[in-house]
Amino acid sequence: MTQVFNFSAGPAVLPKEVLQQAAAEMLDWHGSGMSVMEMSHRGPEFISIYKQAESDLRELLAVPANYKILFMQGGGLGMNAVIPLNLLGRVREPATPGPAVIDFVHTGSWSGKSLKEAARYANVNVAASSQAEGFTHVPPEDAWKLTEGAAYLHVCTNETIDGVEYNFVPRVSDGVPLVADMSSHILSRQIDVSKYGVIFAGAQKNIGPAGLTLVIVREDLLEHALPICPSAFHWKNVAEHESMFNTPPTYGIYIAGLVFAHLKALGGVAAMEQRNIEKARLLYAALDQDDFYSNRVDVSCRSRMNIPFYLRDESLNEKFLAGAKARGLLQLKGHKSVGGMRASIYNAMPIEGVQALVDYLNEFAGR
């Protein structure tokens, strides 16, 4: 089989070791005579898989004891609706005057999708936006216009399409939960979970196959769902049933658990962060070498995971992509909404893949 490097933004590359283990266990998991795909989610075999995955994720992210980890469905887009349905009740109680307001910082396509969905359920305040500048940075925090008593503040800490990443934890007023979409950089860098009320992430970028969504939620935020919240998406129901209120995405949880164990064996999140810093530095150095390529994101906000770039002469785009494919460098075409190119270099992308891309960048530019 020809060596390829998959730079897709999601569903994305998985560690080869994880895929090999899953292949070996496909027909018979640990002598059970069953594939994980065939197991009852309430049977002892799968319960052991779930508990180990939950425990390993809690260890990797140092999740405090007063936070619940939920394994759910719906993806990032689905969670954009689930979040207001679970949190708006805390500001719609009789003692709280006025309509509910959700604060958003608009830094790219995904935070934009989030605020549009939330506007179906409450008033939305765009506390800050970099849209006028083409989503090239995170707006300076001292310029944010936050709402006193907001239901919560929602941020996307890594914009998959636009390549903007937060390098700080936003400040919130006392009592206002901070909600973070970390879909495309969770487990790639160390975070202080205690600074957030809710963290959520679609698994298909840095954790596992599409279909699984992780939610890490502080326990005091489980009691505020609106009456219209579907029971299968009510965080309290999901937490009380240990993610088994309805049939969970069992195979996705299994693969995620293998990824968690793999990350632990490599040294955990701290070790992965150092690898990711090295990979991003290598790729950005090649893009910045001259004006043949350009990355438009402010240096202080550049993503380590999703790196969009443009050729100076965009008439060469198809030739560039064809040459990349011939060298086994796949899925480099940028998102249709922004054009250009994009290299997603998640945890599972080895530095050899980044070096192969850098070599091709230099070759194509004729350096």
TrEMBL record:
Pathway linked to the protein: Amino-acid biosynthesis; L-serine biosynthesis; L-serine from 3-phospho-D-glycerate: step 2/3; Cofactor biosynthesis; pyridoxine 5'-phosphate biosynthesis; pyridoxine 5'-phosphate from D-erythrose 4-phosphate: step 3/5
Top-rank taxon, per record: Bacteria
Q: Where is the Aminotransferase class V domain?
A: 4-357
Catalysis performed (reactions): 4-(phosphooxy)-L-threonine + 2-oxoglutarate = (R)-3-hydroxy-2-oxo-4-phosphooxybutanoate + L-glutamate; O-phospho-L-serine + 2-oxoglutarate = 3-phosphooxypyruvate + L-glutamate
Q: GO molecular function terms here?
A: O-phospho-L-serine:2-oxoglutarate aminotransferase activity
Q: Which family does it belong to?
A: Belongs to the class-V pyridoxal-phosphate-dependent aminotransferase family. SerC subfamily.
What is the annotated role of this protein in its UniProt record?
Catalyzes the reversible conversion of 3-phosphohydroxypyruvate to phosphoserine and of 3-hydroxy-2-oxo-4-phosphonooxybutanoate to phosphohydroxythreonine.
Give the EC number(s) under which this enzyme is classified: 2.6.1.52
Could you identify this protein by its name? Answer: Phosphoserine aminotransferase
**Where pyridoxal 5'-phosphate is bound, by residue?**
110, 160, 181, 204, 246-247
Q: Which cofactors does it use?
A: pyridoxal 5'-phosphate
Positions that bind L-glutamate: 42
Where N6-(pyridoxal phosphate)lysine occurs along the chain?
A: 205
Report the co-factor binding details.
Binds 1 pyridoxal phosphate per subunit.
On subunit structure and binding partners, the annotation says: Homodimer.
Q: Where in the cell is it found?
A: Cytoplasm
Could you tell me the keywords of this UniProt record? Amino-acid biosynthesis, Aminotransferase, Cytoplasm, Pyridoxal phosphate, Pyridoxine biosynthesis, Serine biosynthesis, Transferase
